[in-house]
Amino acid sequence: MASVVEAAGGEADVEFVGLLKPFISGPATASPTQRARPLVPGASISLATATSAGTLGCFVRDADATYLLSNSHVLTSHGTAAPQSSVLQPATYDGGNATADHVATVTRAVVMDLTQLNLADCAIAEINTGSTAVRTEIPGVGQPSTSSLHADLGMRVVKRGRTSNVTLGAVTGVSLNLKFAWPQGAMELVDLIEITADNGAADFAAPGDSGALILSEIDLRPVALLIGGGPASNGLVKVYATPIATVLGVLNVSLL
Fold first, then answer.
1. Residue 198 has what pLDDT?
2. Please, is 189 exposed, middle or buried when counting C-beta atoms within 10 Å of its C-beta (0-12, 13-18, 19+)?
3. pLDDT at 14
4. DSSP SS3 for 254
5. How buried is 111 (Cβ within 10 angstroms: 0-12 exposed, 13-18 middle, 19+ buried)?
6. E-strand stretches of 54-130
7. Other C-beta atoms within 10 Å of 118: how many?
8. Are 32 and 209 in contact (CB under 8 A)?
9. Helix, strand, coil content of the chain in percent (nearest 5)
10. Which residues have C-beta within 8 Å of that of residue 142, sequence separation ≥ 6?
11. Which one, 12, 48, 158, 185, has the greatest CB density within 10 A?
């Protein structure tokens, strides 16, 4: 860039911008709380037995099946749900029906432990591929890469969640160990990423966004899986997430 300014005799300004997109119109983006068929990332989900709502982060796979990815606390109700529980989209809280909206079955979940450090809060549920189609493109965001990215301070990120929909922010902390309020007590997670919305902007996430996939804004590479957060001194919510590479590793799956 310095060579461009020099060639222009100092009469050039340089400004860095994000990924630019054509302003062609498309179909209106449905609310994340609505029924979505095919299934899409960022949609409302819950167990059939839960009166709550979380977020479908993205789709993953192994040699056996295709799964939806979210938090363990979403897909196991903080470890209290029965094995192989039914997952609904939309969530029960958003009007999901236990019969008509059954889309997946919980397959694997990281068991959270109050007595030790926890690597990740994540779980997967096998998609009913015979009756439920999936679309990997994130409404309002775009087509995510299948190549994950390590988070660096200042990195611009984006996510779509059940409650706050599409929001932008920046990585403001890395390699953090923090305790979260679980029904069973204080649960400590390690190596977390902190994300904060732009100054003066709305919060980056809100209750119901648990399980959302966080991506780099410029090239939509998956960065982390959102867990939760809390208010900061400036009044905005600071959000915390587990690196997606850690999530994929503990579940032994790859991005779809």
1. 76
2. buried
3. 61
4. strand
5. exposed
6. 54-55, 58-61, 66-70, 86-88, 102-109, 123-127
7. 19
8. no
9. 10, 40, 55
10. 21, 220
11. 158
What's the pLDDT score for residue 235? 74
Q: Which residues of the chain have pLDDT under 50?
A: 4, 23-26
Given a contact cutoff of 8 angstroms between Cβ atoms, the answer to whether 238 and 230 are in contact is yes
In a 10 Å sphere around its CB, with 0-12 CB exposed, 13-18 middle and 19+ buried, how is residue 155 labelled?
Answer: buried
To the nearest 10°, report the CA torsion of 123, 145, 156, 34.
-60
Virtual CA dihedral for 184, 95, 35, 100, nearest 10 degrees? Answer: 100
Residue 242 contacts residue 113 (beta carbons within 8 Å)? no
Task: Please report, for residues 121, 173, 175, 224, the alpha-carbon distance to residue 23 in angstroms, rounded to integers and kept in the order given.
Answer: 37, 33, 38, 28
- pLDDT tens profile 23-68: 444 455 689 999 999 999 999 999 999 988 999 999 999 999 999 9
SS3 256: coil
d(CA 176, CA 178): 6
Instruction: Return d(Cα 11, Cα 29) in angstroms, integer.
Output: 42
CB 48 within 8 A of CB 92: yes
Tell me the whole-structure pTM to 2 decimals: 0.89
Q: By the 8 A CB rule, do 242 and 195 touch?
A: no
Neighbouring CB atoms inside 10 A of 24's CB total: 5
CA angle 71, 164, 134 (to 5 degrees): 55
- Rounded Cα distance, 135 and 39, in Å: 6
**Contact indicator for 158, 167 with CB cutoff of 8 Å:** yes
Residue with token string 């609310």: 31
